[in-house]
Amino acid sequence: MALFNNTRIVLASRPIGRPSLDNFRIEQTELPVPGHGQILLRILYLSLDPYMRGRMSAARSYAAPVEIAAVMEGGTVAQVVESRHPDFVAGEVVLSHSGWQSHALSDGTGLVKLQNWPAPLSTALGVLGMPGFTAYAGLLTIGQPKQGETVVVAAASGAVGSAVGQIARLKGAKAVGIAGGPTKCAIARDEFGFDAVVDHRSPTFAEDLIAACPDGIDIYFENVGGKVWDGVFPLLNSFARIPVCGLIAQYNSIGVFEGPDRLPVVMRDILSKSLTMRGFIQREFVYQKPKFLEEMGQWVVSGAVRYREDIVDGLQNAPEAFIGLLDGNNVGKLVIRVS
Ligand SMILES: NC(=O)c1ccc[n+]([C@@H]2O[C@H](COP(=O)([O-])OP(=O)(O)OC[C@H]3O[C@@H](n4cnc5c(N)ncnc54)[C@H](OP(=O)(O)O)[C@@H]3O)[C@@H](O)[C@H]2O)c1
Questions:
Q1: Which pairing describes strands 174-179 and 150-154: parallel, antiparallel, or unpaired?
Q2: pTM for the predicted model, two decimal places
Q3: Domain locations in the chain?
Q4: By alpha-carbon position, which residue is closest to atom 41 of ligand 1?
């Protein structure tokens, strides 16, 4: 008799605009059996990240979309249940890319053992994982913060933004965070130590940002785009650097973007202020991973870099939690505790 004890969430349809629950389908399938050279993994934690919205769309991007009826992709922390692979034994915990499901088969490709991990295992998906690395590599390689400079980042209480602000301060820069609402602003200021925090939901956002950046902005770590960009752009100093990391404000957009055509003004200031704008996908800096793990690991263990996780229990709650991420409902790194 078949044992239907693998749970998985597949992409049922492609969202138009904001995703809804019916874009996902929960399925029960048979527990896979590892063949020769394979490992059966039980997923402990699943990372939910903004990039997943792009994978739900068939539009051209830097990565292939998830096919309809396929398991949603995602980074995971998993435990080896059964191994027929010479390099893995039952009980070991690994970082994998197993997606939105409770169990997965692997041939070992891309698995990273999390032996002697210096912090809770969930941090392998957050501050010591992809988002933390994105902050580290993007800020230090493209932004290159210097003593006394002003660094601005939005989504400042989130996984990437909170790390950007703290690393900027460790490098002697002033960190100004932008976040949505008083609770997130208080977290950015009190937990993550931003020197100043501005609420992008406030009707006085543009004026508040000017007041928070009396010396202008030397580095803008772009996470959101939209009206936050409109507020930041006029304040950029000559020779400012803009690592373009994400544009979450437009991930659910359909068709033409709101507002006037910004391109002529942006191009004028790129020229006249000698601005450097550089988009990046974190994996291009993969060669920096060992240095990141060593340096960030020390910062996290010593408390020099703090982190916050928003842990949601139960794989079945992943679709709702993901939709909430795009609405700004998460407070800190969003992780699903699968088992
Ligand atoms: N380039 C790369 O390799 C790479 C890698 C990882 C992440 N990223 C990007 O980095 C950004 C942050 O990712 P994360 O994982 O740290 O997410 P996160 O901050 O944990 O969560 C997303 C946050 O974005 C903010 N947000 C959503 N819609 C917004 C809007 N319309 N205007 C302003 N803020 C909005 C919300 O915070 P508030 O409520 O505070 O506004 C929300 O909590 C995303 O754009 C993501 O795509 C890029």
A1: parallel
A2: 0.95
A3: 5-126+307-337, 130-283
A4: 180
